[in-house]
Amino acid sequence: MDHHLRRSTLSDRLSSLEVDAFLVTSLTNVRYMTGFAGSNGQALVAGDESVFFTDGRYTEQAGHEVPDLERVTYSDALASALAEQVSRLGVRRVGFEADHLSVRSYERLSDALEGVDLVACDDEVGRIRWIKDDEELASLERAQTVTDQAFDDVLETLAVGVTEQQIARNLEALLRRDGADGLSFDPIVAFGENAAEPHHEPGHRMLEEGDVITMDFGALFGAYHADMTRTIAFGEPASELKKIHDIVRQAQQAGIDAVHEGATGAEVDAAARGVIEGAGYGDAFSHGLGHGVGLDIHEGPRLGREFTHVLPARAVVTVEPGIYVPGLGGVRIEDMVEVTADACRVLGNASRDLIEL
Ligand code: ZN
Ligand code: ZN
Fold it and tell me: What is the CATH number of the domain that holds 36?
């Protein structure tokens, strides 16, 4: 991973942001910019004069994870250490991540940095993270491979009487067994009518003949998150659910077909949503079509009605339409895709047809 290149990309933005340096405080963004994987670190990005900050617990770790940056260890708070560096570098205007700095932290910095302007900025690093490099793509692909494997294997463990929680635990164990560093998030497992809740918390509901089963889960690999959903049937499901599955399957395909470099998040959402609306279930598709994935499980670029930004090549987004009918159940199908110049590439290989066990 070329952290230097990433910092150069941000440094190139400084003049248009009208700042001399950019303070990165989001831990995920710090990791992206420096390679630091600990729980407390900040980076002041200013071209070749960038500085990394942490506290005494991480001096040693930062030494090998952030070997290429000037490192400052502070004993109590960032503010005074930052003030020292800012004055050493002669920086007058410091951009900060308005999405990630608390009001209290802002006040502390503002008190310590006398005579320096703190400039609220958008999530500049998050925006750079939209475009994945080769190593990031490889990690996401590896995470998805493990996720596909766990999906195949968990099907063997479905039987009348097992509970949602048991299947969620099986998924966790299988993901780890197949090589995940951890879980992208706690698996969502919903049986029958519970599948009408998009983010159902697995409970003690027991599996019955004729239930649909929605599983939304993913492996974490090298800090990168996989995210996949399948809804399958245990025995013969209600005919409306079969019909709904068919609609969601077509909507997802329409969404996938609409993804390409230069398409907007709203256009891709509309392509999938149109299929669901056309089938009369528009109100039952109650969320956006998808989101970026990477170091965070939910990041940019988003796919949804309000997102007019354009998708760049090498962004990785989910395409996950769903239809949810209270009392009956629901269906969601989700895959991660890599945006390419004229289309996209689906990362996983699990079947999207209705599996009836
Ligand atoms: Zn998901
Ligand atoms: Zn998702």
Answer: 3.40.350.10
Distance 42 CA to ligand 1 centre (A): 30
Using the 3D structure, point to which of 112, 129, 146 is the last residue of a domain: 129
Residue 322 C-alpha to ligand 2 middle, in angstroms? 11
Could you give the 3-state DSSP secondary structure of residue 104? helix
**Residues within 5 Å of ion ligand 1 by Cβ?**
216, 227, 229, 334
pLDDT for residue 270 is more than 80: yes
Contact in structure between 190 and 332 (CB atoms under 8 Å) = no
Total domain count for the chain? Answer: 2
- Give the count of beta carbons closer than 10 Å to the beta carbon of residue 96: 21
How much distance in Å is there from the Cα of 227 to the middle of ligand 2?
A: 5
CA of 334 to the centre of ligand 2 (A): 7
Same domain for 139 and 41, yes or no, is no
Cα 76 to Cα 84: distance, rounded to the nearest angstrom: 14
Q: Are residues 117 and 141 in the same domain?
A: no
* Report field, pTM of the whole predicted structure over 0.85: yes
Give the Å distances, CA to CA, from 207 to 132, 157, 191, 306: 40, 11, 6, 38
Domain boundary pick from 129, 145, 167: 129
What is the number of the ligand closest to the CA of 332? 1
Q: Are residues 115 and 16 in the same domain?
A: yes
Domain that holds residue 90: 3-129
Q: How many Å apart are CA 144 and CA 227, to the nearest integer? A: 8
| Per-residue pLDDT tens digits for 58-114 | 999 999 999 999 999 999 889 999 999 999 999 999 999 999 999 999 999 999 999
